[in-house]
Amino acid sequence: MCDTMTDKNRIYEIAAEAGFEDAAVINTEDLQFVPEFRVLCEENDCGNYGKNYGCPPACGTPQEMQGRVMQYRKAVVFQSKTPVTDVMDPSLTKPIKKRHIQQTRRAMQQMAEDGMKMDGFAIMCGPCNFCAVCAMEENKPCPHEDMRTSCLSAYCINATELAKLCNMEMEWGGTMACFFSLYVFDRK
Which end of the chain has less neighbouring CB within 10 Å, N or C? Predict the structure, then answer.
């Protein structure tokens, strides 16, 4: 995947077609991991800690998550920006996150349809929502392990530094919801 400039340019086209504000192809070695961010998941503001296979503690330790990413050389970063009246209101931001995740899946599907080698995995802006209700809540095994995703917080990726690395504008707070997802690829 992305062996030529043509592929890279096509990725940017696909991102725009999927409705993203911006996209960038980066080296995974440039990502900044902050294990202390795991506390954000443990605070359980989203309500998924211990209830979703894509979330801590089930998804793995910060070191395990970083190790998964570092098995790959590259990542496509997708950014969406959506005006809202209050970015701290989950009733406004949850539907935006869901749309961002759908856009990411749509972009990945298009990259595969274009013949790009899809040897990696996605990191989303929110908890795994591939199933309407996570099987973990019913003490059943995950029926879609190959589709399960985790969020940036679970991977302890610093979104602020990610935005800087990609030359993307980002706001926390205020009236602009900025979300990021990644597709990690090019296995070492």
Answer: C
